[in-house]
Amino acid sequence: MRTALAIASFVVLIVHGVVFHDQFFYRWERHQTAYFEQARSLSKSEPERAALEARSPRIEQTIVTSFGDTRVDRCTTCHIASDDPRFATYAQPLKSHPYSAAMGDVQRNGRWERRHKFSDFGCTVCHDGQGRGLETKYSHGADEFWPEPLTGYVTQANWRKDFAPKLKGKEYMEANCAQCHTAEDFAGTPNVNRGRKLFYAMNCYGCHKIDGMSEGTLGPDLTEAGKKYKIDYLWESIVEPRANLDSSFMPNFHLGDGDVRALVIFLKSRRGVNFAETSLDRYKAHVENVAVVIPPGTAGEKAGEQLITDRACTACHKLGGKDGGIAPDLSYEGLIRDNAWLMDHFKSPRSRVPDSIMPTFRFPGEDFERITAYLTTLKTPPPAMPPAETYKALCERCHGENGDGQGKVAWYLDPAPRDLTKVAFMNSKPRERFVNSIQEGVPGTSMPSWKNALKPEQVNGVLSYVLATFTKEPAHEIKPHNVPDTNPMASTAASIQHGEEIFLERCTGCHGRKADGKGPNSLDITPKPRNLRNAAFVASIADRRIFDSVLYGVQGTAMPAWIDYVSKNDVGDIVNFIRSINQKKGSQQNAGQ
Amino acid sequence: MPVASTDPHSHTATEEHMPRRRVLAWLTSVGLFGSAVLSAVSNLVFIKPRATYGQPARFAIGKPDDFPSGTRISLDVKRVCIVRDGGKMAAISTTCTHLGCIVGISDTGFACPCHGSRFDQDGTVTGGPAPKPLPWFELSLAPNGELEVDKGTTVAPGTYLNV
Amino acid sequence: MSTETQEKGAWSALREMPSNVWSSIFRNPLPCTDLERASTSFTNFFLHIHPVKVHKNTLRPIYTMGLGLISLFLFFILVATGILLMFYYVPSTTQAYDRMLDLRGTVAFGIFLRNMHRWSAHGMVAIVFLHMCRVFLTGAYKKPREFNWVIGVLLLLVTLFLSFTGYLLPWDQLAFWAITVGTSIAGYAPLIGKQMQFVLLGDTTVGQEALLRFYVLHVAVLPAVLVLLMAIHFWRIRKDGGLSRPQEAKGETAVVKMTLEPAKKRVYGLQGFVRGPFTKVGNVPDDSVYAWPNLLLSELFVFVLTVSLILLVALAFNAPLEEPVNVMHPPNPAKAPWYFLGLQEMVSYSAFWGGIGVPGLMVAMLVVVPYIDRGTKGVGRWFAKERLLANTIFLTLVILNVIFIIIGTFFRGPNWAFVSPF
Fold this sequence. Notes:
The complex is a heterotrimer. Helices cover 40% and strands 3% of the residues of chain A. Chain A starts with a helix and ends in a 13-residue tail after the last helix. By secondary structure, chain A is mainly alpha-helical. Chain A has five domains: 32-101 and 112-139, no CATH class; 164-288, Cytochrome Bc1 Complex, Chain D, domain 2, CATH 1.10.760.10; 304-375, Cytochrome c-like domain (Cytochrome Bc1 Complex, Chain D, domain 2, Orthogonal Bundle), CATH 1.10.760; 387-471, Cytochrome c-like domain (Cytochrome Bc1 Complex, Chain D, domain 2); 493-580, Cytochrome c-like domain (Cytochrome Bc1 Complex, Chain D, domain 2), CATH 1.10.760. By secondary structure, chain C is an all-alpha fold. The model of chain C is unreliable at 250-257 and 272-276 (pLDDT under 50). At the A-B interface, helix 1, helix 3 and strand 4 of A face helix 1 and strand 1 of B.
């Protein structure tokens, strides 16, 4: 026992000694001592040498409060030679911080003077990193829990390997210059400027809001993107939009590295605060930001065609030689849409296609008119082609090359393009229905009307091609359903209320409490439940069709047959209810036949 | 070497017969006492701050040209007064040596508003309860051409920096 | 037999639960007999600090005036109110003052608790000082109570330090400059003065570091030290044979022959073995009374008085809160807390002697007095003639200190010049 105790006591002493020693003889002490020795050998006067001799290592720090929060920068503890011009040729950490005219430094009497004095700015406001750290790992921000690694110099271990190397480079520091130097043409921030231009040119501004720059509400607010996110997240969000959110409909614009870098640097500079502004300036800017409108005349007197390029419509749409791969093909727009539709759609895309993801752009009215005027001139029908080619030219973009509704832009469309391989559905509807869909289009959706672009025999040809190639199984005789042609229930308040009650009881699971198709079950269903608030769509279908769908279900979809649970009169009430929620206020609309 | 008695419970053995036990006791005491001492010293080292968040001890104040000859400029927040006479410069503390108030500049030197201490231009006490003269801080020219005051180092009054 | 045990089922356990719970906590009845009175001291956790019997002299109000007890109860009040205040106070230079405003205005009972805390603090400093005077003037520091006296001096210093550290926490002009002055005095100590000041303040001037350090000292370190010293102080009282009393009172009861009886069924542990000026077994006439209920009732009475007084004072007078700290604007004059004003007055004559020398000497004298004054006469009586010299010296120094405090408080104005308080 005594032996054990003696050994343990001695071990505890050793451990105490190790702990004690651990807190002395830091790396930074060695750096400082090396600096003192070097500076002594470089010094020219005796008092200076004596002073350096007397100096012992200690923590050097700059405390800066001018930039919002308190910054304690201890970088100069190791980088003690940073303000000593004689050490320009030494290796880090004893290297002087460079001087440059581009940084505003001037030469006076043969001696450089720093514009951004360390005592005023500290270090981290430009370089990021962890000012309070005294070990390389922490102070350089390599620790992955630190939100601001040394910008452009350090990547963190958990950053994706495929683009982490692209996140290095001094140009990333421009994001920090822009905290004060916010002028759009500031020479010191070329990447920020380029990124800003791209922000407009690639139509980011349409979906994303940045205070003072844009008003988009479809995507996250990027006013403080630089403050909230690290550059690896910003890079990833641009090159792989769905990496962090599966349901994101942010398009992938397939930009080159240079463009992505510029955008990342630009976004990193968005910190919701501009140190050069006073709070009053910021407040005023915010108040005036209420309606940000791209100023008129920005595109001059250019015609609609030029405007399409200027406004980067082809960042999403297809037109001319360009294709953004996100939105419908506009090449035959003159044959498909008319003036009224296009102007309404510009002013508010969702007024025509309720679940469209196209942003509401705030161009001046004349820009819309010019673009509309141009689009309506696109009246050249597609050349006569075999059905397969016609399908490829007109239908494949949405319905997919396999007809399965997985076309290039399908992800961005709601309702999704019909899966033409779904036998149960395709064979449950009469051929006339499909002919009608192709010729007249499906209002309220992205399915255009092709009757002006295709002759009836072309329509039939394509349809037969589709049925043969994609649906494959030949249709059977469809048993007629016993559904009334007209709604037996008059559209009274009582009927509508009863219809609403049944709806709330039975339909909201899929169609949602607001009847917008976003019920809880809708997440697991393909195709998604119909948005019954799609006014244009609802107006275009006959009561009879609603009766049919409700009583007998829709084969090939999750819509069940309710014939055993609701009576015809009940369905009549439901129909009245559905019509009632799609009416404009104060007017009664008769359902189309 | 004397062997320990065969009875393990015997307590009557003398030290000469139990050198091993003595050595072990010595080791234990050294170990424990040493640890206690190290621990106590560590606590003292701990409690003395290495970096404080107040004003830094060593700071730059500008270039020599910012202080014209014949002036005495008091930097209030830093609690130091920079005097320049021709090519000679000095930094004198403006913290009263009595009880720590900030002295103001007067025609004859410095005057403390708290308890009436009076100092001459060099900081020597000429009246009032102050027990010691105002210390002079080390003033030096940094490699980048700026003047630096180091409040952690005092110099003898009358020590000037030649610029 | 088996049927009886079978009856003790869960149902009867449930019915008997209230009385079972009660008797598991309170195992002994309220005392009726002497035996029961005697046993309260070791059958109750909280009462076991008390002896079984106390000398009648101990309970004489004029003798001790209950000053020690009052200090203890003030300390309890301080701990209770202090902990409650901790729920709302933040030791940050930017937040402390605002929190004080909240405590004064918004928090329910905030102003009241703060007042109680402040006045109890001042009260405790005054009362422990008076308690020290009482102990000195009754010669109660003499053998065997020398070490307890030293502990007492330490307790006085810790109390002063506690009050000093707490003084800074409101972070108003009064607090800031009082502590600036006070810590500057500490800096006058030779060799280690500046280092000590740096460690105490955590910086070269009073700032966030000082506030944090003072807070930690005030709510954690010093209370722990105080409690430890108090525990030793009370333990020593017991070991030294209770409070001091006049010689005559001891009489024949001083030493009683005792025999070690063979172990009986009930053994009272150590009490059976102590041979001292006290605690004896046997029918010998003595002047002691049972602690239960006499001492305990007296203690309760002092407690009620103390609490009532503090409540009344807290109701009547508000603790001060001046303007928020302005580092550039020292008030003229800047005064230390009242218990240090005597020091500050002396400092105005000579920094070292007034701040370090004289106080140091006084503390040293206090600590050393029981080892210098070895006379045994005059213990247990106020102003005993046999102790005229000691009492005179002591009272002179006390009165001088009080005079200095009065001068510093009322007769000193801007620039520390003499002013008339009228």
